[in-house]
Amino acid sequence: MEPLGEQERERLLHTQRLKAAVHYTVGCLCQEVAEDKGIQFSKQTIAAISEITFRQCENFAKDLEMFARHGKRTVINSEDVKLLARRSNSLLRYITQKSEEIALNNLEQKERKKKKSSAAKGRTTSDEQVEAVMAESEDSNMA
Q1: What would the 3-class secondary structure string for the chain be?
Q2: Rounded CA separation 33/53 (Å)
Q3: pLDDT single digits (tens) 65-121
Q4: Between the CA atoms of 117, 123, 129 and 134, what dihedral angle is there, to the nearest 10 degrees?
Q5: Dihedral sign (CA 13, 15, 18, 24)
Q6: Residues 11-20: pLDDT tens digits?
């Protein structure tokens, strides 16, 4: 077997860390369900759920990349995620709702920034006016 290149080694380590994180999360979720429902999950069942979840996430990532590429974009956006979720009505509704909440929140933040910058400009203008009046009075006092 030939040795792995540095990039391949890093990618493998990254994938292993991701798989471990998915396995841990699935284990925590299974433990919550087990306590709630009074059942037990075997280690093999948790491992199988983890593997299926990881593979499904890989497929989702590839699909999202393809949707963005099809749209001649390099960035995945919320419309790509909605397209991915189109087969699950409840998931699509949830994602659409969250997307609208985020858009509304972003709009509100932009308006607040705009008001703050307008207020700051207004203060600067009034400060400049005060300075101009004071300079004029000094000029008239000198004359």
Answers
A1: CCCCCHHHHHHHHHHHHHHHHHHHHHHHHHHHHHHHHCCCCCHHHHHHHHHHHHHHHHHHHHHHHHHHHHCCCCCCCHHHHHHHCCCCHHHHHHHHHHHHHHHHHHHHHHHHHHHHHHHHHHHHHHHHHHHHHHHHHHHHHHC
A2: 17
A3: 999 999 999 999 999 999 999 999 999 999 999 999 999 999 999 998 888 887 777
A4: -140
A5: negative
A6: 999 999 999 9
